[in-house]
Write a structure and sequence with these properties.
Elements: H1 4-21, E1 48-49, E2 68-72, E3 77-84, E4 89-97, E5 110-117, E6 122-129, E7 139-145, E8 159-166, E9 178-187, E10 216-217, E11 228-229, E12 233-239, E13 244-251, E14 256-263, E15 280-289, E16 295-298, E17 302-304, E18 309-314, H2 329-333, E19 338-346, E20 358-367, H3 405-414, E21 452-453
Length: about 450
């Protein structure tokens, strides 16, 4: 069986070696700007322009807060700088977005993100790539600097650090530049030491989600910056083949996010499989990301053959001490409270079943009651974390939010916005974020804590 999850480790080892070598490419043009008539449902990069340098000597600064937008070609390497203190946990994420309709190779098209000290010592490395051939979806990864002297700490010193983003030479789409959306985030240190043990792998990942009432309509956003707010319940969206929709759910300490994504049989179908002639190997992609845009779980795309199909994804219960877990990246990633993002991608080949868009039902359940979190030495929500009363700095409402009393109340608490300039890249494809990581149960992607090499093993 062609199982790309089994083939990723050796591929990622080779790419990690390329990261260490630090290959350098050519110059980068300014990111594309908004074009009248561009598809409003494609991934929209948001932020101010930045031009990554060819060498580490003159790397531009990635300021904390709002995103920055750059671009990268196959075989190129971009350098950026971040100034870190000795107390904060620092996160740097990168999202790669290719033009719509670009040829994609699930084994070759990826990016490598590395965080180093100014003297070259490595703090963290992560690799992200596509999960399906010729399915245009955004993918990304995050690296982290965890301060301190414990087993989870990496690069605890203050000062200038470097971020290197590399795109290897690829057979598919070699002449097409990818947009890069970069973000630097800081989580303040805590008072005292965290207690407890890291969460166990989710024992309820396969448990049925509670079902009450019918689903409500809710159109997803185009990316992280306009992801649509969801609460517990069933939500339905119609996703055009080839598009990715983003949703966000506020998850607090002690809570566990359980989700499922369902696709029905085509209208008028008997509900029976169509056989090998109608089989699509990579039909539906779903992924969950933590507030730092670190991939927490992914389904690596599931097949579809004309009968109802579903994909389940869940997180471990959120706990600050989860970041000390070294072997299970999905547990490590569930160590900050705040917005958790769900990205849903539909293959363009699904048009053979759903000419007018694919009806997708997203079921959301928050298991467990909110618990007291750590005592931060500063404002976590100011950095984009937490679900407290000042979480308005976290993000903006996505399009299509329903005018219900519950949503109005949540929006009043949750939304403020960054007030950033917007750059809409012309004709960008609909993508979801994915990353290559070790998985225990359909898990991949960079751990948000505990540095080191975050590639799959």
């Amino acid at each position: 069986m062609d199982d790309r999850r089994r083939r990723h480790p050796s591929r990622l080892v080779a790419l990690a070696a390329l990261c260490a070598a630090g290959a350098v490419g050519g110059l980068i043009p300014d990111p594309a700007q908004a074009v009248p008539g561009a598809d409003a449902r494609t991934y929209r990069t948001v932020g101010t322009s930045i031009r990554g340098s060819l060498t580490s000597d003159d790397a531009p600064s990635l300021a904390v807060g709002g995103p920055r937008v750059d671009s990268i070609a196959a075989g190129e390497t971009r350098f950026y700088a971040v100034d870190l203190d000795y107390r904060s946990t620092a996160y740097v994420s990168a999202v790669a977005v290719s033009p719509p309709g670009a040829r994609i190779d699930a084994y070759r098209d990826e990016i490598c993100l590395t965080l180093t000290r100014s003297d070259g010592g490595r703090c963290d490395t992560a690799v992200a790539g596509t999960d399906a051939d010729d399915v245009a979806h955004p993918f990304g990864t995050a690296v982290v600097r965890q301060p301190g002297t414990g087993t989870a700490a990496r690069c605890g010193t203050a000062g200038r650090h470097l971020v290197r983003v590399e795109r290897p030479e690829a057979t598919a789409g070699r002449d097409e530049r990818w947009a890069l959306e970069l973000r630097s985030m800081r989580e303040p240190g805590i008072k005292g030491e965290p207690s407890g043990q890291p969460a166990k792998d989710s024992e309820s990942a396969d448990a049925p989600l509670p079902r009450s009432g019918g689903s409500r309509q809710r159109a997803g956003g185009t990316g992280f910056n306009d992801a649509t707010l969801l609460t517990s319940g069933a939500w339905q969206d119609t996703v055009a083949p080839g598009q990715t929709r983003f949703f966000k759910v506020p998850v607090d300490w002690g809570q566990q996010l359980l989700t499922s994504v369902d696709i029905p049989a085509p209208e008028g179908s008997t509900g029976k499989p169509t056989g090998s002639a109608g089989f699509l190997r990579d039909a539906l992609g779903a992924a969950v990301y933590n507030p730092a845009r670190a991939l927490l779980a992914t389904n690596h795309f599931v097949p579809y053959k004309g009968d109802p199909s579903a994909s389940r994804i869940s997180t471990a219960p959120l706990a600050y001490v989860n970041r000390t877990e070294r072997s299970r990246v999905a547990v490590r990633a569930a160590s900050v409270a705040g917005w958790y993002y769900v990205a849903v991608t539909v293959s363009p080949k699904m048009k053979r079943y759903f000419e007018d868009g694919v009806p997708v039902t997203l079921r959301v359940h928050l298991k467990g009651d909110a618990e007291p979190g750590p005592r931060y030495d500063g404002s976590a929500t100011a950095g984009g974390f937490g679900t407290g009363a000042d979480q308005g700095r976290i993000g903006q409402p996505g399009p299509g939010a329903a005018d219900t009393a519950e949503d109005d109340r949540l929006r009043a608490v949750a939304y403020g916005g960054f007030g950033l300039d917007t750059a809409l890249l012309a004709g960008l494809g609909a993508w979801k974020l994915t990353a290559r990581r070790h998985t225990a149960a359909s898990v991949a992607g960079p751990g948000p804590h505990g540095g080191g090499d975050n590639t799959a093993r």
